[in-house]
Specification:
The chain has ten helices and no strands. With 203 residues, it is mainly α. α1 crosses α2, α2 crosses α4 and α7 packs across α10.
């Protein structure tokens, strides 16, 4: 193991211990201790939810909601558990839930549109060029939708690996399951994403 890896491990252990002390204070009613955790991790949580929403307003709202949920649930956190791994799971689950609700809302709004308006939209879609259909924005939207509909255990593992750059061991701690299971989930998630990308290229 390299000196750099040892330094990272030492720093991580030191950070976890500090977090555990702050969590213990929060569980005893110290709101200021939770504010310290919020300041420490709000940018990371904002980065997580930004994978699911685009506007600064939505990112700020979801980030705030994640910390509200964490504050109300913090008494369920065991003393030997890593606070950030726990917070990470809350952020991912809340962001995915928000994305799913928005998708259902959009589908409902689409069904409520007048038939003439839908016909007009169909005409516009029909005159779009293949280049437009395969634009980066639409492909990104397709990938986002694919992540939203695939099983949560697959999408979360893939996001942690591909978007946030966590190692298999780190993901194993966040999701609380063996490394082998994590590798299998990421492999299956990549297969589903590959199918999505192929469907765009065949349009």
């Amino acid at each position: 193991m390299s000196l750099c890896q040892l330094s990272d491990q030492t720093l991580r252990k030191s950070t976890d211990k500090l977090d555990q002390k702050l969590v213990a204070r929060v569980q005893k009613g110290d709101r200021a201790a939770f504010d310290l955790l919020l300041v420490k991790y709000q940018n990371r949580v904002a980065s997580i939810v930004s994978r699911f929403v685009e506007t600064p307003e939505d990112i700020a709202d979801l980030t705030q909601e994640v910390f509200i949920r964490a504050f109300h649930a913090i008494h369920s956190l065991r003393g030997d558990s890593a606070f950030y791994s726990w917070l990470y799971r809350i952020a991912l689950n809340h962001a995915k839930s928000h994305l799913h609700k928005n998708k259902l809302k959009k589908e409902h709004q689409t069904n409520d549109k007048p038939e003439a308006q839908l016909n007009d939209q169909s005409k516009l879609l029909n005159i779009e060029s293949p280049e437009t259909i395969l634009s980066k924005h639409q492909l990104a939207e397709g990938i986002q939708n694919a992540l939203a509909v695939m099983p949560s255990e697959l999408s979360v593992a893939l996001i942690l690996r591909e978007f946030d750059g966590l190692s298999y061991e780190e993901i194993s701690k966040v999701m609380e399951c063996p490394v082998g299971t994590i590798r299998s989930r990421i492999f299956r998630a990549r297969e589903l994403l590959d199918n999505t990308i192929k469907s765009f290229s065949e349009c």
